[in-house]
Design brief:
The protein has one domain (5-144): Gcn5-related N-acetyltransferase (GNAT) (Aminopeptidase), CATH 3.40.630.30. The chain is built from three helices and eight strands, in the order E-H-E-E-E-H-E-H-E-E-E. The protein has helices at residues 14-31, 91-103, 117-121, and strands at 5-8, 49-54, 60-68, 75-82, 108-113, 126-127, 132-134, 137-144. Strands 1, 2, 3, 4, 5, 6, 7 and 8 form an eight-stranded mixed beta sheet that branches. Strand 7 and strand 8 (137-144) form a beta hairpin. 26% of the residues are buried.
């Protein structure tokens, strides 16, 4: 697998940002029928790191973002998503490996859809709290020390 694209929030051009947001909406809002406020104001923050794989036309296939939590040291992994026609090729796994390289020894957290907790457990994440609904989809909080 090739190296994923990387950009901080202030490095994203409009076309790329639009494509990344469209992928998130296509999967989380449309496919999963989970209307939620995806635009949370953090995508353009200079401390937000975006990682993604794209096809030969530059369209995103798989994506995630890394946010700095309010404590200033914990990293939140979020919006992990892969386009329907690109699933099963290991893209999310490669993105998580790249994200963990970026995170290094810092503690990290995420809110996993309950159906994919085993995926995140393979990277050392452990469930840290009860299941909750986010946009009508069951999630659990997970952390990796």
């Amino acid at each position: 697998m090739s190296t994923p694209h990387r950009a901080t929030g202030d490095q994203l051009d409009v076309t790329t940002l639009y494509a990344l947001l469209r992928l998130r909406v296509d999967v989380f809002v449309v496919e999963q029928e989970s209307p939620y406020p995806d635009l949370d104001g953090r995508d353009l923050d200079p401390s937000t790191r975006h990682l993604w794989f794209a096809d030969t036309d530059g369209e995103p296939l798989s994506y995630l973002r890394l946010l700095v939590e309010p404590d200033g040291r914990t990293i939140r992994v979020g919006r992990v998503v892969t386009r329907a026609d690109a699933r099963g090729k290991g893209l999310s796994r490669e993105l998580m490996r790249a994200a963990l390289d970026d995170i290094g020894d810092a503690p990290s957290v995420l809110d996993a859809q309950t159906t994919v907790t085993r995926f995140y457990s393979a990277f050392g994440y452990q469930v840290t709290g009860p299941e909750f609904l986010d946009g009508g989809v069951a999630h659990v909080p997970m952390s990796r020390p």
